[in-house]
Amino acid sequence: MPNILVVDDDEKFRKMISDILETRGYTVTGVENGEQAISTSDEEFFNLALIDINLPDMAGIDLLTKLRKTEPEIIKIIVTGHASLDNSIEAANKGVDGYVVKPFDPKKLIALIEEKLSKQTKVVQFDDRKVAQFMESRGSWMSTVSAPKKR
By three-state DSSP, how is residue 112 classified? Predict the structure, then answer.
């Protein structure tokens, strides 16, 4: 099952989101700030991160960039109670994969998460097939090359 990182300084929010996601079968790790998110993602692979835009030690938007460097394939969704056109544009420019405004409908958040994870799974499956096809083509190519004759 996918592994999800929840980055929010509000402990009640982290607990609520974790409970919702865990009942859906996801593995969830919650942290309260950007530095914890970075160190945790260095130690563990996450498929998706839910990131509050206002963290105590850095802007959630800055965390997007840092996570993209350490985990390029991670899906990044901003969750904010302080939505603005400026921060949504900046988030889009920094590579956000989704933007959710608090308060939100948990069913819609789950639908967004499932949609993004489904796309990620399809990309991984496609990549795996391409690697297998490449290896097969190399194998058949290698079998057509004769080994040098011994003298």
Answer: helix
Q: Is 95 left (phi over 0), alpha (psi -120 to 50) or beta?
A: left
Q: By the 8 A CB rule, do 68 and 91 touch? A: no
* Residues linked to residue 51 through DSSP beta bridges, in sequence order: 7, 78
| Whole-structure pTM value | 0.77
Give me the residue spans of the domains in the chain: 3-117
Give 73-86 pLDDT, tens digit per residue.
899 999 988 888 88
Best CA proximity match to 76, nearest among 58, 57, 91, 86: 91
Sheet hosting strand 98-101, strand order edge to edge: 27-31, 3-7, 48-52, 75-80, 98-101
The CATH code belonging to domain 3-117 is: 3.40.50.2300
